[in-house]
Amino acid sequence: MASVQTIPIPMAEGAVAEAFVARPQRDTSEEHPGVLLFMDAIGLRPRIAEMAQRIADWGYVVLAPNVFFRDGTKDELAPTTDLTDPGARDEFFEAAMPRVQALTATRAEADIPVYLETLRALTGVAEGPVGTVGYCMGARLAVRAANLDAGVAAVGGFHGGGLATEGDDSPHRGLADARAEFVFGHADQDRSMGPEAVARLGEALADAGLSARNEVYEGAAHGYTMSDTAVFDEAATERAFTELEALFARTLRVSRA
After folding, report:
1. Under CATH, which number does the domain 5-251 receive?
2. I want to staple 187 with a disulfide (CB 3.0 to 4.6 A). Which of 1, 98, 124, 159 is the partner?
3. What angle do CA 51, 53, 55 make, to 5 degrees?
4. What is the pLDDT of residues 55-107, one digit of tens each?
């Protein structure tokens, strides 16, 4: 997508993370709230650029980093086969899972403040609260961002996995430190986020006194927002975008034209 730029983000120990930056295409206002978008496990690619631009056109500046920068550039990690073929999608994920697992809580929590600092320093980002949204494993990162930074006012998480495990480093365990409003759209019958985990997440949100929607999208498979894969579900995707747009409008003080 031509309107989406790619920028470098200097990380620790001399590493560099590429990131997409999307800005409103029609809104000529000088400043807009910032949104940090965390990609899914497939990586930074045209579909993520499309999603970033769609959110930006609601009136935001969106930053979407390559969170797998330790493993390679966005182009090096990009799929080389058509993931609308179920077999190709399954094969890709077999190769991708080691880098998902290598992005530990410790590493993620070192990286996220850099992403937030970069977002806030972008030209045209207004002072004040920012939002986050994450897809697949990116939903975990979005929750961690809110747990780490009280300036994160909104979190969207869609077909997220591992949000409320029994592990000591599970994202839901840090919700007492969050100050955001949350919207979750879970995939139906998702092995990475089953009914017990959804209930556990809901209890943690309630215990922390946080406003939240914590819903399962009936019939939608894990990865349902990704139109470049075999599991894309248009109805569930549109529901997710509708929920997210309303969340950001409520929390980031953006008038909806």
Report:
1. 3.40.50.1820
2. 159
3. 70
4. 999 999 999 999 999 999 999 999 999 999 999 999 999 989 999 999 999 99
Strand residue runs (E) in 11-51: 16-22, 34-38
Cβ-Cβ contacts under 8 Å for 90 (sequence gap 6 or more): none
Residue extents of the structural domains in the chain:
5-251
Which of the four pLDDT bands, split at 50, 70 and 90, describes residue 6?
very high
